[in-house]
Structure formats: structure tokens, C-alpha cells
Amino acid sequence: MPLFDYRCAACGHQFEVLVLRGKEPEACAACGAARLERLLSLPAVKSESTRAKAMAAAKRRDQAQAKDQAHEQRKYELSHDD
Ligand SMILES: [Zn+2]
């Protein structure tokens, strides 16, 4: 499916649009400005569900790292307590 990511040059709102028969969106879904840029650097086909999964995975990774860092900090404090 021809899904494209667009970004509004006026407010920065990003959204995906299913472009059928070359009919591109004319206005930002958030603010209505007609200054849209198609984001070519992103994969053209990308569902919301895969994006949500990727974000959830990144969040879990960040939390694991934060936990590790807290643990290392605690070890450091304990070993330098005298
Ligand atoms: Zn906008």
C-alpha cells in the first residue's frame, strides 16, 4: 500500500497518509496549513503497529539501561563508603 509520511512545515505535525492514485494530502491534519513535506527518508510502508512495537522495545531497553546504571552507581557508593 502506498503509505507516505508527511510533516507539516507550519506546526511540525507528522502523519501517515495512504496515497491513492497519486492523490496527496493538501493540508495538515492538525493545523490545516498547506505546507506539507513528504518524508522520503522513512520507509514508505510502515504500519502503526510495527511502530508501536519498536517504541515499546526502545522503552524497555531504556528502562533496562537505567536500572543497570542505578545498580552500578550503588556499587560504586558502597565500595567508596570509607
Ligand atoms: Zn500543521
Question: Can you describe this structure in just a few lines?
Answer:
The protein has 82 residues and is α+β, with helices and mostly antiparallel strands.
Overview of this structure, please?
- With 82 residues, the chain is an alpha+beta fold.
- The chain folds into two domains: 46 residues, Rubrerythrin, domain 2 (Single Sheet); 36 residues.
- It is 39% helix and 18% strand.
- Strand 1 and strand 2 form a beta hairpin.
- The model has no long low-confidence stretch (mean pLDDT 83).
- The site of zinc ion has 8 residues, from loops.
Radius of gyration based on Cα positions: 21 Å
The total count of strands amounts to 3
Topology order in helix (H) and strand (E) letters: EEEH
User: What small molecules does the structure contain?
Assistant: zinc ion
Q: What is the CATH architecture annotation of the largest domain?
A: Single Sheet
In total, how many domains does the architecture comprise?
2
Helix % is: 25-40%
Helix/strand-derived category reads: alpha+beta
The CATH class label of the largest domain is Mainly Beta
Spans where pLDDT lies below 50 across 5 or more residues = none
- In whole angstroms, the N-to-C terminal distance is 64 Å
Write down the overall mean pLDDT: 83
User: Total number of helical segments?
Assistant: 1
Major beta sheet, specifics? 3 strands, antiparallel
Q: What name does CATH use for the topology of the largest domain?
A: Rubrerythrin, domain 2
